[in-house]
Write a structure and sequence with these properties.
The protein has 397 residues and is an alpha+beta fold. 34% of the residues lie in helices and 25% in strands. A six-stranded mixed sheet has the order 1-2-6-3-7-18, sandwiched between helices. Strands 9, 10, 12, 14 and 15 form a five-stranded antiparallel sheet that branches. The protein has a three-stranded antiparallel sheet with strand order 4-5-19.
């Protein structure tokens, strides 16, 4: 580690208690999605950076639901880094399943328990700390750091999508999802169609007079299960094998009526390199084959639910290589990883912004009762973000 790295680390550790109080305030904001309610937290987040002279913006996608954006300028010219993490959290579920109150953070042996502590307010707090430290220390570098606390990630990446649509640009981006302090350069996507199956109604006392749509839908579900077994024969080196599952089944209107319509929701996880079109063509071929063989009757692709793309950034991109250098200097594992879940990374990659995922916390704790994050990880991730920014923005163009 160089002298400035040591200075960053010492500065962050000296402000530990101040940062913990800030973190508690962010965790206390009930940004449950749905409905979201991110405005209070967005204003609080930006207030810390406004006090340091950062340029700030509340970017409203909907009334009461903004992205919280802060820009920090260093030197003249240079590149731009985007630090992206989301403010919204999933519902905490029944409070009886928690050992603590989900929106009253508690420190138990260095672990901060609260809804959103790991997913994703821990990563957002680390990014905030990095920005505050760099704003105060003013390293010699040229460029812009844009911190974007986004709304609506838990319901389809709404905030990041809007940021891109409003002309958001950067030369490199880090998504602060919980990665256990590992460097993630790929994640799977999700293709989520809903198929409808048509039959003919009849009285249940004479089932042969009808055509049972539930039976047709069930036969398709069995084929989906067989596809999932076949996928296990191929695997992406970073994200493993693709998967497919039938996840929601609706059919029937009354106990004594043969159903004439049934729906099946499918969740098909895509490996990097696979597209929605690839996955859709495969399923349509399956359905057309089943229909040709008389296994099912009429069917339709009814609609989609929240499709998300897969993502992969080149391991040779300077974003990746500089992050690896920083991790090695901090004696952390620099092995490149893949994530089987889906994040906003693909939205930034699709917009032409090289992006990685790196953050404190463990995705296995996300959406669970008694969610927690190790506070030291929050501080350590902040050091990594700050050090990366200095090295990236100190490059000669």
């Amino acid at each position: 580690m160089n002298d400035f790295s040591i200075k960053i680390s010492e500065y962050i550790e000296e402000h530990r208690e101040e940062y913990k109080k800030m973190f508690y305030k962010l965790l206390s904001c009930q940004t449950i999605n749905p409905p979201g309610d991110e405005e209070e937290m967005a204003k609080l987040l930006l207030s810390y950076l406004e006090a340091q002279g950062a340029e700030t913006e509340l970017q409203y996608m909907q009334p009461g639901r903004p992205n919280a954006i802060a820009r920090l300028y260093f030197g003249t010219g240079g590149k731009k880094i985007l630090l992206n993490a989301h403010m919204d959290v999933v519902p905490p579920g029944e409070e009886k399943n928690w050992n603590t109150k989900p929106f009253e953070p508690v420190d138990i042996e260095g672990k901060i328990y609260a809804r959103g502590s790991s997913d994703d307010k821990g990563g957002l707090m680390s990014m905030l700390i990095a920005c505050l430290a760099l704003k105060d220390l003013q390293p010699e570098m040229n460029g812009i750091i844009e911190l974007c606390g986004v709304m609506g990630e838990e319901t389809g990446g709404m905030g990041t999508t809007y940021w891109v649509e409003q002309g958001g640009k950067a030369d490199a981006a880090i998504v602060g999802e919980p990665s256990k302090m590992e460097l993630v350069i790929a994640h799977r996507g999700a293709y989520r169609p809903i198929f409808g199956f048509r039959g003919r109604t009849a009285h249940s006392s004479e089932p042969d007079f009808g055509e049972n749509a539930i039976y047709a839908a069930s036969k398709f579900c069995i084929r989906v299960s067989e596809l999932n077994e076949a996928y296990k024969q191929s695997a992406h080196p970073l994200t493993g094998s693709p998967t497919i599952a039938a996840t929601v089944f609706h059919g029937g209107v009354k106990n004594n009526v043969i159903p004439d319509y049934a729906e099946v929701s499918i969740d098909r996880r895509l490996s990097p390199g696979e597209t929605f079109a690839d996955a859709e063509k495969e399923l349509l071929n399956v359905l057309q084959d089943m229909q040709a063989k008389g296994e099912i009757g009429n069917w339709e692709l009814a609609r989609y639910l929240n499709n998300k793309g897969a993502a992969l950034v080149s391991e040779k991109d300077c974003l990746v290589t500089i992050m690896q250098d920083v991790l090695r200097d901090y004696e952390l594992d620099d092995t490149l990883q893949g994530m089987r879940a889906t994040t906003d990374m693909y939205l930034l990659q699709d917009a032409g912004i090289p992006t990685v995922i790196f953050g404190p916390g463990d995705m296995a704790l996300a959406h669970c009762p008694n969610e927690y994050i190790v506070f030291q990880e929050v501080l350590d991730a902040a050091k990594i973000y700050a050090e990366f920014a200095v090295r990236y923005l100190s490059q000669k163009n």
